[in-house]
Specification:
The protein has 306 residues and is of the alpha+beta class. It has helices spanning 93-104, 112-115, 132-136, 156-176, 201-212, 218-227, 236-239, 242-248, 277-283; strands spanning 2-5, 14-20, 35-40, 47-52, 59-65, 72-74, 77-79, 84-89, 141-146, 149-154, 185-186, 191-192. Helix 4 packs across helix 5. The protein starts with a strand and ends in a 23-residue tail after the last helix. The relative contact order is 0.08.
């Protein structure tokens, strides 16, 4: 799927190469087009790009893979923007949760249309149009119905249980996909260097917890760690050997050997290389009266005045 976005009337159209789920472009039931929107990131509290599918029924997160000096061939043209966008479905509760937690400090039941409000990100109100939003609010909030209207209040207990289920489902997905986790995995290549039996349940829980933490703030991540009954990891500097500590320190690393010995006169020199035929011929030439090359570059001696 490729999308085009016109920046200004006089500017060139930009085409983006996109890998997207079918739910992002399905227009069978809705007439509106998918839309890219700026929303508040629940983890960093800064602006991030998201995509709402047709009719705002499904929220999608947008991830960008970018490498320098890349471009795309699209038809008969070359697109200079070599980025690759990944658009995948996302649970809107992750973005609703920070607003609910903020309103929960008042301890009152409130209608959600008054909770999900943000002057900096007005598109956040569209999160309530997502299909999963109204039917899933009970996972993170207490509900109270008065007449035909529902009121909600943030619940820490329900949120922890909901996040725990997210972690458990992630663990199951990791196991089914045979994704290696734990200390036996090289992070740069994701290759297991130990037996699969070395990966314990705690390794999977910690790995899944890290993935879920990308969608929640730091305080909530720490609370979830306790809820999962996972002890905090000891600082690596306290468990590593002294030699490892020195390499990781901010101080310059001292050399383990005395490299000045290679400057000594008694250091064994390599035998001279054999002379070529041209060098042998040049060596036989009579150099009497000839100046050396260095004499041409030596400073001239100024004549003294008498």
């Amino acid at each position: 799927m490729t999308t085009k976005k016109k920046r200004t009337p006089n500017a060139q159209n930009d085409s983006w190469v996109v890998i997207a789920a079918e739910s992002a472009i399905d227009r069978q039931k809705h007439d509106t087009d998918p839309a890219f929107v700026r929303l508040r990131n629940p983890s960093t509290d800064t602006a991030s790009l998201y995509m709402l599918g047709s009719g705002d029924v499904q929220l999608h997160e947008v991830k960008v893979f970018q490498d320098d000096f890349h471009s795309w061939f699209i038809g008969q043209t070359v697109q200079r923007d070599g980025r690759l966008l990944y658009i995948t479905p996302m649970d809107p509760l992750f973005l609703i949760l920070p607003y609910l937690m903020k309103s929960g400090k008042e301890g009152k039941f409130q209608p959600m249309d008054q909770v999900i409000m943000d002057e900096d990100f007005p598109a956040c109100s569209r999160l309530l149009s997502c299909t999963r939003s109204p039917v899933s609010l009970h996972h993170i909030a207490e509900e109270k119905e008065v007449g035909s209207q529902k009121f909600h209040r943030y619940s820490q207990e329900r949120t922890m249980d909901w996040l725990k289920k997210k972690v458990e489902r992630t663990v199951n997905a990791l196991r089914k996909s045979n994704i290696s986790v734990g200390k036996g995995v090289k992070s740069t290549t994701y290759v297991r260097v130990k037996l699969e039996s070395d990966a314990h349940e705690e390794d999977y829980l910690r790995y899944a917890h890290g993935l879920i933490s990308d969608y929640i703030n730091e305080d909530l991540s720490k609370a979830l760690l306790k809820h999962l009954q996972l002890p905090e990891l000891t600082s690596p500097k306290e468990t590593e050997p002294p030699s490892k500590k020195r390499k990781l320190s901010d101080m310059p690393v001292e050399a383990g050997e005395d490299y000045t010995k290679f400057n000594s006169a008694d250091f064994a020199r390599k035998p001279p290389k054999k002379m070529t035929a041209a060098q042998k011929t040049l060596a036989k030439v009579d150099k009497t009266g000839m100046k050396t090359m260095s004499s041409f570059f030596s400073p001239k001696v100024k004549a003294e005045k008498k």
